[in-house]
Amino acid sequence: MVSGAASASNVESQQKAEEELSRVIRKADFESMEIIGQFNKGFIVARLRKAPEGETSGISTTSTDDLFLIDQHASDEKYNFETLQTTTKIQSQQLIQPRLLELSAADELIATENTEILRKNGFEIALKSTAPGERERVHLLAQPISKRTVFDFKDLEELLHLMQNAPAGQMVRCSKARNMFASRACRKSVMIGDPLTVGQMTSVVRHMAKLDQPWNCPHGRPTMRHLAQVPSELGRARLSIDWNAFGCFSRR
Questions:
Q1: Contacts of 10 (CB under 8 A, 6+ apart)
Q2: Which residue intervals define the domain MutL C-terminal dimerisation in the entry (predicted)?
Q3: Can you tell me the distance from the alpha carbon of 6 to that of 189, in angstroms, rounded to the nearest whole number?
Q4: In angstroms, how far is CA 210 from the centroid of its own chain?
Q5: How far is CA 165 from CA 47, 104, 211, 213, 223, in A?
C-alpha cells in the first residue's frame, strides 16, 4: 500500500518530469523525430536533431541532439483516448416519461446552451412547462447507457459543472465516461511486448504531435523520458551507435 507522502512525492516527480519535457520539446517536434529503433519490445528510441549553433550564419559548429525513450503503449493509448474523447457519441436510452430536473437558473442556462455536447454524452434534454402558464423548465428525455458503465443524474451535474469552466463549445466528459474511454483505449492500443516496424513506430510518434497533452497516458503514466544527449557529428551526420551492445534492441 502506498502512503500518502509517497503518493504525493510520485505526483510531484511526474509533474516535474512533464515540466522538464515541455521545456526541452514542443509538440511539433514529434513530426521531425528520427526513429532509431525499438528497445525491449516496449519502448521507441527517437532522436530529435538540433540545428547547430551558427548554422544560420553559414558557420558549421558542433552541437548535441536529444534521444528520447517513448513508451509505445502509453503513447498509443493516449492518442486513442483523446480520439475517443473528441469523437465518440455515447448511446442513450429514452426515458418512459420526461423527468423534470431540479437545476439552478445558472445550470439551466448552461444546459440549454450546450444541448449538442450533452447529446454526445448521452443526455437529451428539452424545455417543457409542467402546467399552462408556468415557465418552461429543463426536462431529461434520455440518459447514457453502456454495457459496463451505469450513468445517473450525478454525471449530468458533473458535466454542467465542467461546462462552467470550459471554453464555449469544447467537449467535456464526466469521470465515468473518461474512465470508460481510458479502458477502451488501453485495449485497442499497441501493447508492451509487441514488435513494431519502423513504419508503426513512426506512426505512434507522429500521432503525439496531434495530442492536446502528449506527456502522459490516461492513467497518469509518463509517455516518454529524455534519455541522453548525443553529438550531432557535424550537425547532420547520421547517428552511429552499436545498439546491439545494449541487448533487446531491434530496428525492423
A1: 2
A2: 35-196
A3: 30
A4: 10
A5: 38, 16, 21, 18, 27
Name, in order, each residue with C-beta under 8 angstroms of 50's C-beta and a sequence gap of 6 or more. Answer: 63, 64, 65, 66, 232
Q: Where among 160, 187, 214 does a domain terminate?
A: 187
Cβ proximity of 143 and 102 under 8 Å: no
Say whether both 129 and 182 belong to one domain: yes
Which among 143, 170, 168 has a CA at the least distance from the CA of 156? 143
DSSP 165: H
Radius of gyration of the chain (CA): 24
* Domain CATH for 17: 3.30.1540.20
Does 134 map to a domain? yes
Examine residue 206 and state whether it is found in any structural domain, yes or no: yes
Cβ(205)–Cβ(38) below 8 Å: no
Domain harbouring 109, CATH code: 3.30.1370.100
The total number of structural domains in the chain stands at 2
- From the list 72, 55, 92, 86, the residue with the least C-alpha distance to 232 is 55
Q: Answer whether 159's CB lies under 8 Å from 122's CB.
A: no
88-123 pLDDT, tens digit each? 999 999 999 999 999 999 999 999 999 999 999 999
List the domain range (segments joined by +) for residue 19.
Answer: 4-76+194-250
Query: Under DSSP, is residue 136 helix (H, G, I), strand (E, B) or coil?
Result: coil
Q: Pick from 167, 187, 207: which residue ends a domain?
A: 187
14-18, 22-26, 29-33, 113-117, range with the lowest pLDDT: 14-18
